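dumping this here before i forget
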Amino acid sequence: MKKVKEQFITYITEYQTEEDLRSIPEFLRKYATRYHHPDFISSDPVQFPHRYSSKADIEISGFLTAILSFGSRPQILKAAERLDAIMERQPLAYVLSEKWKRDFNGDESFYRTVSKSRMAQLFSWLYEIYAEHDCMETALLKLPDGTPLQRLCRLFGVSEKSPQKKLNMFLRWMIRRNSDVDFGIWTSFSPKDLIIPLDTHVSEIAFRLELTKSKSYTLNNAKVITRALAEVFPEDPCLGDFALFGYGVNL
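structure:
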């Protein structure tokens, strides 16, 4: 993975002549098209919610998988596979059964910095949502007006000021439409309201492409990069995520 990322950085650096910079939109379209493809699924954490067909199961699997999506990709997939097995491949039934109280007990690590007690807290939030609502989208619509990210942060009581890469990735999965990778099952929200899931690699590539003047890992920088991508993909700025991140992962 490290070698692949180094090759991509080298490519971008060589590509970035004054003349070629005028072709950055073409570059983004080319690689977004290349990696916005069903083949992307088998090597990405999005494969886990793709195992399900019901809306609630997709939401639950997608949310928990997104929360675990940090660190090396093989380890992410291993942890998500273990979680899927614990849920007996029935996410909604597992949440409502409250078996998670037994399975996730104590401060022992489940995956890296995510402890079992933290997982139990996440399942408790999910239980409250699905005990009252048929889906998470309905729960979000009950909240005061705001962007999808603001609503999701309020629903789970987390900061609205951090980049929230995991939540933005989950939102991308739920909201982007007409996609071979993402689900588009939350029809009450627009893809235009999404923010790119920002990590250090995406920030580095966006900086080298002059989509931003900063490499900072902040919500503001994520918004700056998203606005730049919206100039190329006005109806669907997060399609650019496949160009910035997907290239490095799948080369």
